[in-house]
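fwd from M.: "can u put these together and see what the complex looks like"

so here's what she sent:
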Amino acid sequence: MSGQNYSTTDDEMLVQAARRGELAAFEELVFRHRDPIYARAFSMTRNEQDAVDLSQEAWVKGWQRLEQFQGDASFTTWMTRIVINLCLDHLRKQKRQRADSIEAMDEESGGVERQMPVVTVNPTAGLERAELRVKIDEALGRLSAEHRTVLVLHEFEEMDYKAIAKTVGCSIGTVMSRLFYARRKMAALLADMRKIT
Amino acid sequence: MTQEQQLKLQAFLDGELAESEARETLAWTQRDGAAAALLSELKNTRQAMVQAEPHLCVPETREFFWSKIEREIRRQEPAAAAAPGVSRLATLRDWLLPAVAAGALLLVAAGLLAHFNVPKPAPETAADADTPTVETTLANSDATTYRDASEGTTLVLFSYATDDNPVKKPTAIN
């Protein structure tokens, strides 16, 4: 199958060919799914170069672990789990290299989110989807890595509390409080952006 | 509102509460304005997030992005990825067949050698204990061992040639 054009081959067949050592088949899988894998890495790290490096590392790990892919979930979902774990390792290393963020300290000391006034008017009402995406992206960038991670895993990856706790390596209670803070902070940030515009 | 109540409200929104707890929480939000307002804010944020996940693309060309992945794969698995498109089985076959052929040749050669040159083991039984044995050394060697088990004697004969007599003379030591 070497030198074969895989552009019309489905994912399942590509995975099978890649398992036999066909790099060209794996390249096609990378080409098809590289954007969502990169997007997940970026949503967690908020750094373009880190996201590129981590997503490439995820693809290398994907190649090495192809035998473990059972096909229970889609190939993209399987690859996304790999990149999420790499991003979590990366963020843990980063955290060890610097002092904890103010947000994390607030979380430990009872949290400022409890004092935040409730945003009564929906700050995203009436926004075009493209405009909303830009605002969400900007607001996500202003959250700490810990809060952003839980929010991304819950809202984008649709993980429940238990799955997030297992993935991140913390208690369900911590997941709940981080998610609560992240949502409240997001609401406040989006309301602020609305006022500015 | 306590933190526990706030988190319960959020768990209600996320469908993480048991049915009875969910019913209680719903009833609470219907009679408590603050709870209803907080639930509404959490719901709006969640909806905005779900609807508007940013769509991002890799900021590199396909070739450039793939080249680093390919390089790393080849670095970590030089044998498996020696040539693009060549399967591991094919690579294994390329090495395995000559190795098996060479092994088979060696076995045949060893079998032939064994057939034509079977060594005869020296007698070591009690019946031969009285018979002296002579161990001749290799042709080019100058030493010969003479062992007599009945006498408990071992003689080692060294031969050497002199200038005037090329014939080797044995020398005995005990």
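replying to her w this: The mean pLDDT of chain B is 74.
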